[in-house]
Amino acid sequence: MEKHEMICICCPRGCRLNVAAEGGEIKEISGNRCRRGETYAKEELTHPMRVVTTTVQLNGGKIPMLPVKTSKAIPKALIFDCIDCLRDVSVDAPAAIGDVIIKDVLGTGADIIATRTIGKRD
Amino acid sequence: MKNVDIVIVGGGPAGLAAAVSAKRHGADSILILERDASLGGILNQCIHSGFGLHRFKEELTGPEYAQRYISLVEELEIPYLLGTTVIDITHDRKVTAVNSEDGVIEIQAGAVIMAAGCRERPAGAINIYGDRCTGIYTAGTAQKFVNIDGYMLGKKIIILGSGDIGLIMARRMTLEGAEVKAVIEIMPFSSGLNRNIVQCLNDFGIPLYLSHTVTSIKGDKRLESVTVAEVDQSLKPIKGSEREVECDTLLLSVGLLPENEMSKRADVVLSGVTGGAVVNERFETSTPGIFACGNVLHVHDLVDYVSEESERAAKYAVDFVRGRTYAESDIQITPGSGVRYTVPFKINPHNIEDNLVIRFRVSTRYSDKRIRVLINGEPVMSRLEPALVPAEMQTAVISREKLNAIPDIRDIVVEVGD
Amino acid sequence: MTDVLIIGGGISGSAIARELSRYQLNITVLEKDVDVSAGTSKANSGIVHAGFDAKPGTLKGRLNAKSNAMFDRLAKELDFPFKRIGALVLCFDEADIPKLEQLKVRGEENGVEGLRIIDRDELMQLEPNMSDIAVAALYAPTSGIVCPYEMTIAFAENAAQNGVSFVFNAKVTSVSKENGIFTVKTESGAEYTCHILINAAGLYADEINNMLSERKLKIRPRKGEYSLFDKAVGGFVNHTIFQLPTNLGKGVLVTPTVEGNMLIGPNAEDIDDKADVSTTAEGHREIFEKAELSVKDIPYKQIIKAFSGLRAHEAGGDFIIGEAEDCENLINVAGIESPGLSSAPAIAEMVADIIKQKHELKENPDFNPCRKPVIRFRDLDNEARNRIIEKNPAYGTVVCRCETVTEGEIVDAIRRPLGATTFDGVKRRTRAGMGRCQSGFCSPRIVEILARELGVDITEVTKSVHGSNILIGRDKLIGDAENEKR
After folding, report:
1. Which domain holds residue A42?
2. Is C362 exposed, middle or buried (0-12, 13-18, 19+ CB in 10 A)?
3. With an 8 Å Cβ cutoff, is C475 touching chain A?
């Protein structure tokens, strides 16, 4: 049985988890103050996932950059690929929270969506 | 001179939540004064996620969290002025502000809610010596340049201080193509949240050097290198441990200071520990009718608590305008062993309407210790905590029933113990 | 060909340029940096000394007190902040009181007025934070404070208004003289010729002199470190507080600054590198230890900035002002260390007199002694604020919140004669970014305004000299070849 120590990142409490696992299967877990810790530990052991946040260029907007995020967590290993996809992306103002900038990015099932509402420059 | 019931200084998370709450508590006229060109405050540049888990039970980015409140302010048709800087507040609540459209605006406020947030401790305030060159910025300034303006400040980066903004910027600069060489923290523990160490440093293999500091900087025009040294228990650099690390940028994340210049003008008494106002259970400062909430009062770890605190402060501001009187809050809450400060600083139990909520921070790291609240020396609350860190704000709640059961409250102490 | 070429745009060069612009002369100032007041003149104590310190008969002794008396008028004409707050020289030992008496006599010989020895009781009334060991002091009511770079900029701007040309990024690489004409070459390859050459090159005045004269000068940089405190403790002391030299050496001063901060320093370290303005932990320990002799409970938490400056110390110890003995029409203004800032107006007059002895100077009928006034929003009353905002709405947008500096003031600082071209140039002209947050909040705005006003890309904006760019490129383009070049 392998033992893992990890910090849960589901919420700002950052619980310290002690996990005993065998072949990716969690046998024992302690330290989590809620049930999400269990799901996190399992995912983290087999296929860690992260929400990615960054910006894309906004043409003609009140602010030159539009913040965006993945609509759900994507595999951690794809973070830099995801950033690369957005390198040359620019969108035209106005933009609204939830606007889909890229659909199904890298085939992850997650969309890149705008996280701020920004109007056109006067 | 214009008359407004509730003038709110600052349109960030504290000011927005206060405005919404004041409106819901029936305030007739409210005015938010915001210096920036849009509402939302520093949340707008915090494009990472992690906000709102308590408030909205979902994980939002900074701008998304801000938008929830901005939308409410718009729906409730609460007036606000953008690009407007408050330049004076008197003890009798005359507020002077200025913008390019209206010029100098003078307002007699029924009550003032200070919600101006905090600022970053600059390089000059910490002991780093060396050359005079460009390439040294606070993490928040870097965040504004990168996330709002879309410009990069450097390629090889050292971050001094492991505050949350520093950790967040380590990841952000990495994603934008810079090489973040290390985060240096003088204390033996991080001043940021654990989850940020995992997802901002560990995920990208960025080392965190605890008990280290930057002792000097070198560079002709642009920063060329910094000297990093290990520190001893008294935080003094250990001779012989110095090494030079090549970098073109030093980001500082070495603390936040409540922005209280205007409070001082209104004769508000400030705490030497928090840098914010000394407030009672109604978030009223030493100047009657001037209230404080959010990071201008004490630096919070989570915006969710800022919103909650500001909503409560606004209710009492509305009470003040309506002339409702409260008993004098003359019972001190004393930070006991292991506790740096508490908010509120003083209370009167008769004024507590539901629960007494005490927010505080511990002074160092503890594991398996109890948080205790003592009234007249008797414990009224005790909670075992597996881990306590200064980075996390703590909360102790005493119910009204419990308070009322003690007839003659003389003193209240919050402490960390076995 | 110009009549007069001045090398150096520090306080000496700028004050001389302004003084000579009273006459019908063609004048050019060459400055190696991107702005005036970029060397010694920008980092010093900012004291207008009363003039009791220098030995009677020396140039320092002759010029200082005379110059001090000129400041009230100059501050008005040139619109730079100046406050006559008075100075105290502390004595820590009863046995040293005769030394205070000696200093008083010396001051009186130099023409300093109002000097008086005061006892501990009076001292405590003047300075409640005085240390317990101070026993008496020499009180000099005429001592004052200025902002050294605002003063230098004011002189230079007024000179420019009156027709003086300033050339920046003009580091002099060679100077020669043939048939009575000087030829000066700069790093960029430009060549200037003139009849009268004024050497006000500060730390480098020896190098300029030594290219023309056999009477060699040797200027050694003497570094002094300072600690600047927040305005919150600007009232910690009320006067400029000096110390009688003790067995620990020459003391340090503790003073309010004219902008309302508190300043402690400087120590004195002879170094070799004329560009070394670094600060050190040891230097700061030294100034703190010494300052603690003067005042107690120094609020160290309120420090906002450490800096250091270099004094141009010439081996002889006095100012060197005059025509070189073996090089006609080369006028040296060298070794201008303390009290150089205080003496600058009198130095400028002395240089004009030297020229007048040999050349007939005709008055410039268009000379205007008054600089175009600077609008300082924070100093105006609300009525005046409204008037200016109505004329120009940019004065209603506060950019620097710590010092309350508006966009209008920043734009004016850039557009004025000899306007700011760099971030530091804006800071020194407006104080934007000089407050407690040290430009954390306002730097993005200032950079944006500079780029807009100068008509350059935002990444071209520099802090000071070429190469000190603040931003390196757009997000996400960091690896691009275009940015790689920078």
Report:
1. 2-46
2. exposed
3. yes
